[in-house]
């Protein structure tokens, strides 16, 4: 997968998010249909052929709160918030995870669910950068788990940050 052409977008004047050819940026209209963006600024790409969707959103926390709260606590709170509403889709927590996203530690969780009889996997990450929290949500088909995880590894390995 290395050596592929990548598209890059700068988010929040800080996060440079690169993704491989085949992914298309979702329109504002399409974004509005997804509740994961909530009211935070957001960006989302999807690859219909690979059945992968990745969204990135962010919020600036009060600097004092940001000093006290880490991405692990944020990810556990995110999981608690989605557990009940996702139960109607057969939600099952697989595990809490840690990933590197552009050299920063991201904490999150991976889970399974079903949409119209299709097994799906979701992965939600929280990354703290200064007083900003970035939320990265990935969705892919369970039958394409290994290939999808490799694509996510490539994407997260190509992230860069403008500030430390």
Note down, in words, how this protein is organized.
It is a single chain. The protein is α+β, with helices and mostly antiparallel strands. It has one domain: Mog1/PsbP, alpha/beta/alpha sandwich (Protein Transport Mog1p, Chain A, 3-Layer(aba) Sandwich), CATH 3.40.1000.10. It has 4 helices and 10 strands; from the N terminus they run βββαββααββββαβ. The strands form 2 sheets. Strands 3-4-5-9-8-7-6 form a 7-stranded antiparallel β-sheet, sandwiched between helices. A 3-stranded antiparallel β-sheet has the order 1-2-10. β1 and β2 form a beta hairpin. The longest helix has 16 residues. It is globular and about 45 Å long. The model has no long low-confidence stretch (mean pLDDT 89).
Summary tags:
164 residues; alpha+beta; Protein Transport Mog1p, Chain A; seven-stranded antiparallel beta sheet; three-stranded antiparallel beta sheet; 4 helices; 10 strands; 46% strand
